[in-house]
Amino acid sequence: MDRQGNRRDYSSAYLRRTYREAGQVKNETVANLSSLPGHVVDLIDAGLKGRQLVRAEEAVAITFSLPHGHVAAVHAMARQLGLPALLGPAGRARDLVLALVISRVVAPASKLATRTWWEDTTLGADLGVAGASTDDIYAAMDWLVSRQDAIEAGLARRHLGPEPNPSRMALFGLSSSWLEGRYCSLAARGYSRDGKKGRLQIEYGLLTDPAGRPVAVRVLPGSTGGPAAFATIVQVVRETLALEKIVMVGGRGMITSARIAALNQPADDGTQPPGGSYAWITALRAPAIRKLMAGDGPLQLSLFDEQDLAEVTSDDFPGERLVACRNPVLAAGRARKREDLLAATEKLLAPLLARVAAGRLHSAAAIGVEAGKVISKYKTGKHFEVTITDTSLVVARRQEQIGAEAALDGSCVLRTPVPAQELDAPAVVSAYNNLRYAERGFRSVFHRLEERVKARVLICLLSSYLTWHLREAWAPLTFTDEHPPAPENPVAPARRSPAAQAKASCQHDAAGRPYCSFRGLLGHLATLTRNQVRFAGAATTVPLLTDPAPAQRQTFELFGTPIPLTLK
Fold first, then answer.
1. pTM of the full predicted structure?
2. Which one of 8, 75, 110, 161 is separated from 27 by 20 to 30 angstroms, measured CA to CA?
């Protein structure tokens, strides 16, 4: 106790020596260590007890580190979705395919680049695919193609069955991917939906649920048109997926009248097609819409004076509903673009007209060649009346034709046999608008053999399926709108929720953590490494994870799973 009555604790540290003299044990104080810092006293104590002391920087050595967080997160989601079991029985082929799917999500690249990348992450070591040969990968891809029907049937049960999908609706989109290489049995020239004109390509038809989760895919020659692709996917839905009473939603010109007639047509023996009857939602082409507008037809622009959604009927489509809608914003944009293109064409024509008028260019053939080059540049030839002689060139706008096209600006007419009590007009428009989910590209194709191309596209489908769920789970960490408002009018442009607008405005959450894109989050997760650590005096190394950043920890918490040290 001190003079104020407070308790005071004292501690002393002494270095003492014990020895024996004349048969007696004696002690001697060698030094008083009380003034030294505690950690120095502990070091002296450990040294005197025979422990090996090393310098701090030599106590622990990190022999090597590998990026771990990004592949661990994607693998955790794959396991949560039951993707390994969906692929097939456990084995070398399944591990290779799973690694290809995860790699497609994290770092899309060619087969050779992917195989090299495996060795630079924990994915290669943990799944046992590091050092895999090209032949190993090809064998795994062939195995995957043999499992395609079973995989797609499993996805269909999850997302297109009556319980998970009470509306019984499926979206079908047709897209294309260009070919990297000189030969592929499926490659052909056709309409390029990814903007790679003049390149050999393949087509693929993708079937998704109403929310955009991919369920099935079929690869087709690059010259395949929409109707033929639709017929192929209907066969898959009927025979492979065994779905009943499904509503197929397809783009304009894909579900034609001929395809509709054949959709539920009995077989040659008079029996009904297996799998039940199918309905559809599709859009009319411009000539059919003009016919509805002609004269006193059922579709008049006055219908849109006070509303932008109307339902009409026509004798040309017995037993069907026609849902007409008009988007004024889209109409204004198309009118503006048309006028810009026409003006740009006239500007290019001005020097040519001056050359002809000055006599520097003559002969109808020569003038026609030059005029064709100019008018075809912006694809506006249908809007110009061109008169050519050996000494003159006259170009004038076809105002009547331009007006007829302008009348359709922003207009769309959907046709469907689905009764209104099952699907009202706004729901029909919303279903058609959701086609954007099914029309996303799978990038380029690097393979030559047909089966390998099919395997590549199937891997893309599985990675897209995985990515869809990752984006949903990580929405609180990214700029994704977590709760987009239900549109009051399906024709009006989509709106973001106030919460999403706040994300875009402040860029940080309530804890001060920055929001990022999906790719940015994967890149951040890659900084979470797994390190092989060797401690002084030990012959082996042990794996240790770096301390995760708050956002890295939260990505796994959103899955409801801890950060795994290894993938298996």
1. 0.79
2. 8
Q: How confident is the model at residue 2 (pLDDT cuts 50, 70, 90)?
A: low
Nearest one of 432, 379, 459, 451 to 102, comparing CA atoms: 459
Query: pLDDT tens digits, residue range 418-468?
Result: 888 888 888 888 888 877 766 554 554 555 677 888 898 899 899 999 999
Question: How far is the CA of 23 from the CAs of 18, 63, 294, 420, in angstroms?
Answer: 13, 54, 128, 111
> Alpha-carbon distance 331 to 342, whole Å?
17
DSSP 112-143: HHHHHHHTTSHHHHHHT-TT--HHHHHHHHHH
> Which comes out higher in pLDDT, residue 58 or 202?
202
304: Cα separation from own chain's centroid = 36
Structure tokens at 434: 């959701």
Q: Are 93 and 129 in contact (CB under 8 A)?
A: no
pLDDT digits (tens, 9 = 90+) for 117-171: 999 999 999 999 998 999 999 999 999 999 999 999 999 999 998 888 888 888 8
Q: Are 125 and 529 in contact (CB under 8 A)?
A: no
Q: Is pLDDT above 60 for 274?
A: no
In whole angstroms, give the CA distance from residue 404 to residue 390: 32
Q: In the structure encoding, which two tokens stand for residue 527, read together? A: 């900084």
DSSP 255: S
User: CB count, 10 Å around CB of 319?
Assistant: 6
Nearest Cα neighbor of 415 from 288, 302, 520 is 288
d(CA 257, CA 230): 12
The alpha carbon of residue 552 and the mean position of all alpha carbons in its chain are separated, in whole angstroms, by 22
